[in-house]
Amino acid sequence: MLARHVALVAEESRITMRELRAVAAALQKQATRDLGPLWKVEATVTAFERLDDLPLDYWPVVIMDDIKDPQAAGYHEDKNGQPFACVQYETGWTLTASHETLEMLVDPFGRRLVAGGSPVKRQG
User: What whole-number distance in Å separates Cα of residue 95 and Cα of residue 59?
Assistant: First the structure.
């Protein structure tokens, strides 16, 4: 299985590299222990100081002071076949970073649909 590589990068915020490395380690544990076995995904999550430091095969999750979308705490897209995510730096940003990282690992291009039954009883 080909490993996917995610880079956690802080831009324009007060996040220290120490904090960023701690969050990256937690996301790595989550991806390895919780996501990987269920979704058959192998991934690495690494903190980087700058976007310019990223190797070409890393998918960035960029923490920003303003992602320019007042209705979202974060989102992920792909540009030219290269998935990336943006996360708003605010209280709870680590939860949003987790959500966007795991979502991007399972559905990098935002096109995966898995049909399932309704959680409402007798609805089908």
Answer: 18
Q: Per-residue pLDDT tens for 58-77? A: 999 999 998 887 778 877 77
Backbone angles phi, psi at 90, to 5 degrees: -160, 175
CB 9 within 8 A of CB 63: yes
Whether the CA torsion 59, 64, 67, 72 is positive or negative: it is positive
In the chain, the N- to C-terminal Cα span, in Å, equals 35
Q: What is the pTM of this model?
A: 0.83
Distance (Å, whole) CA 103 – CA 97: 10
How far apart CA 123 and CA 70 sit, in angstroms, is 35
- Written as six digits, the tokens of 120 are 């409402």
For residue range 4-33, what is the model confidence (pLDDT) as tens digits? 999 999 997 789 999 999 999 999 999 999
